[in-house]
Amino acid sequence: MMILKSSLPNIFAMPILIANGLFLLGKSTSVAQSLKFEIFSAFVPAPSTTRGQNIHIYSDPKTGRIAYPNGKNIIIRDLENPSKTFVYSGHTYQTTVAAFSPSGFYVASGDLMISVPTNYTTIDVNGNVRIWDTVGEDHILKSTFRPLSGPIRDLQWDSDNQRILAVGEGKERFGHVFTFDSGNSVGVIDGHSKVINGCSIRHKRPFRAATCSDDFTVVFFQGTPYKFIKTIRDHSAFVNDVKFSPDGSYFVSVGSDYKIFLYDGATGDLISQISDSKDDHKGTIYAVSWSPDSNHIMTSSADKSVKIWNVQSKTLERTIKISKNASNGPLDMQLGNVWTKNGLVSLSLSGDLNVLDLNSDSPISVYKLYSFSAL
After folding, report:
1. With a threshold of 0.90, does the pTM exceed it?
2. How far, in Å, CA of 178 to CA of 186, rounded?
């Protein structure tokens, strides 16, 4: 949303939707006047958040832009230049996640299942996955699919930019892998008994995939086509996020048991728990992201902190306290994060985006965004 300053007197600001974003425009008392406006600040809608539910945030590997859900829209945001923000409004229902393809040319975005009343009963409308381009100004829809009979919780592309792994809730299955253009199935995602909270694909051959669930497990797959290898039962509570390292050597899982486990990226074998007995997280860990060099991970927790861990030494390098203001209550719980080419970002329950630095114990800047929907 941009605030524009009018060159005419008797102008007041009002929000209206124009093209691909929200703007504050001045309104003249005389419709016959010719208006001129000058942009002097810009605002962007905050991510939609729900207490107790992690939010997956992904970045464009080429530009560092981030994507997140807001109401029925997907926000593509340049943190360094908010005027370059784009609002994708192609979804009809509440959005949940958006992921850039490795090439950066496409985004896959998901939404919720809803119940539509009819004359005699209600009909469940499955969660949608929409694939659309990020290059052209029109952001043309490439394809749309309904891979699950429930909400989409997470999406991942493979390194070939050809296949998408979608996970979430469902009746007959909680995950599905399909080609992005035709929707053809390229494997079976099974082994879970409850909602899948997160997923990741190894961007190195041979392909592997991992999913994590409310059933306290991580399931490991080989591909393509993707098929079950084994169930991993190291966590003792909900497993909220799982991520392969950029170089494919490892993957890591985090959960509501406050624990972090590191695995071999090719075999799925447990390497170790990553822990610091003096300063582990004291709350649910909702999100994990890898550094581009695969040497560090960032974890975000309900204990209102973000921790940076050295994967090689399995040690804690820094704790970043998001807020020291106790009056904020749960609003400073950390529900999501992303390690972009331009830096580290963690998401608060309030919708604030906290920009972090490896050399600082507190956020270096906070985007206190607006929690309205972009319509």
Report:
1. no
2. 5
pLDDT at position 83 over 90? no
- What top-level class would CATH report for the domain 235-374? mainly beta
As a whole number of angstroms, the distance between CA 94 and CA 163 comes to: 24
The position carrying tokens 């943190």 is: 79
6 Cβ partners below 8 Å, 6+ apart? 26, 28, 35, 36, 37, 38
pLDDT tens readout for residues 123-159: 666 789 999 999 888 899 999 999 999 999 999 999 9
Q: How far apart are CA 154 and CA 245, in angstroms?
A: 17
Listed by start position, the domains of the chain span 58-117+125-192+229-233, 235-374
Amino acid, single-letter form, for residue 120: Y
d(CA 64, CA 59) in angstroms, rounded, equals 6
- Give 160's Cβ-side CA count (13 Å radius): 13
DSSP string, 65-99: -EEEEETTEEEEE-TT-GGG-EEE---SS-EEEEE
Give how far Cα 181 sits from Cα of 120, 152, 187, Å: 36, 18, 16
**Closest CA relative to residue 94, chosen from 115, 122, 117:** 115
- 45 preceded by cis ω (within 30°)? no
Whether residue 274 contacts residue 311, with contact meaning beta carbons closer than 8 Å, is answered with yes
- The tokens 């050295």 sit on which residue? 310
Please check whether residue 334 is in contact with residue 304, taking contact to mean a CB–CB distance below 8 angstroms.
yes
Distance CA 319, CA 298 (A): 10
CA distance 355 to 357: 7
Residue 195 DSSP symbol: -
Q: How many residues does the chain have?
A: 375
User: Whose CA is closest to 352, among 334, 375, 327?
Assistant: 334
Whether 58-117+125-192+229-233 shares its CATH topology with 235-374 is answered yes
Q: Which two tokens stand for residue 323?
A: 């807020």
190-236 pLDDT, tens per residue? 999 999 999 999 999 999 999 999 999 999 999 999 999 999 999 99
pLDDT digits (tens, 9 = 90+) for 332-368: 999 999 999 999 999 999 999 999 999 999 999 999 8
The CATH architecture one would assign to domain 58-117+125-192+229-233 is 7 Propeller (2.130)
